[in-house]
Amino acid sequence: MIELSVPGADVVVSPRDGGRLASLRIEGHELLVTGTSSDHPMLWGAFPMVPWAGRVAHGQFTFDGETYELPLDLPPHAIHGTTYQRPWDVADDGSLVIALDWPFGGHAVQRFDLGDHGLTCTIEVHAGDRPMPAQAGWHPWFARPVELRFSARSMYARDDEGIPTGVLVEPTERPWDDCFTDVVAPPMLIVPGGPTVTLTSTCDHWVVYTEPEHALCVEPQSGPPDAFHAIPQVVLPGQPLVETMTYRWA
Asked: Mind listing the pLDDT tens digit for each residue in 90-117?
């Protein structure tokens, strides 16, 4: 475990558990659903999603004229990338590094910067020796009774399998398991009797999952779920995809 502390905030990062935030405690209040290595890796902490975020429909996509198949972590779809259930290595500078276990190779790097009033997480997705599709994001599980203030102008319509169709519609009422864009203001988490935490990111898409009774998820992503079919980003050798997510408290 990597432990970081400043007055009023304590952070625990677990490299062996998918390089995730295992704990984020602010003013004595734990923000995250905590767990251990024996718990399902998709259901606790705040884990990075690379080299894709969310679902890839049926675990199959075509890039540069060739078709690729991915493991079906959430049948019938592939989900959340290849690194959230694998250990990351700790580099000499304290960053986390992992080889991407998929046909294109490449690697990812994570960094954590804790200050007096915020934690910034950075992720880099590096191509190997050829161009590749890529996406990055984070999947935090925030423990209830945290309250979420969130407003966006657009939401992706989903098909019967939960895959975005590419059509943007007016957001519906909660509960949500949906991807939003054109966010009106940074999402805000209010802990009853505790801190108010604002979430910001260089990512321009947010997946919000409010259905569970014990938690909610607010996930910044560099593109919508199933982006490999819709609007794939291409990473070139020597030109990584770099994104940040910041938790900021007053």
From this structure: 999 999 999 999 999 999 999 999 999 9
> Both tokens of residue 45?
């902490």
Amino acid occupying residue 55: R
| Rounded-to-integer distance, Cα 217 and Cα 249, Å | 18
The two three-digit tokens of residue 161, written as one number: 């399998």
Distance CA 162, CA 24 (A): 30
CA separation for the pair 35, 227 (Å, rounded): 30
Strand, coil or helix: 87:
coil
Answer whether residue 232 shows pLDDT above 90. no
> Which uninterrupted H or E stretch holds 227?
helix 227-230
pLDDT-based confidence at 230, cuts 50/70/90? confident
- Domain boundaries in the chain? 2-145+189-249
Architecture of the domain defined by 2-145+189-249: Distorted Sandwich (2.70)
In contact, 219 and 209? CB cutoff 8 Å? yes
Q: How far is CA 150 from the centre of its chain?
A: 17
- As a whole number, mean pLDDT of residues 164-191 equals 95
Phi, psi of 43 (to 5 degrees): -120, 15
Longest Cα–Cα distance of the chain, Å, equals: 55
Rounded Cα–Cα distance for residues 39 and 142 (Å): 16
Q: Determine the pLDDT at residue 195.
A: 95
Name the residue with tokens 């939003």: 180
Is pTM beyond 0.70? Reply is: yes
The number of beta carbons lying within 10 Å of the beta carbon of residue 113 is 12
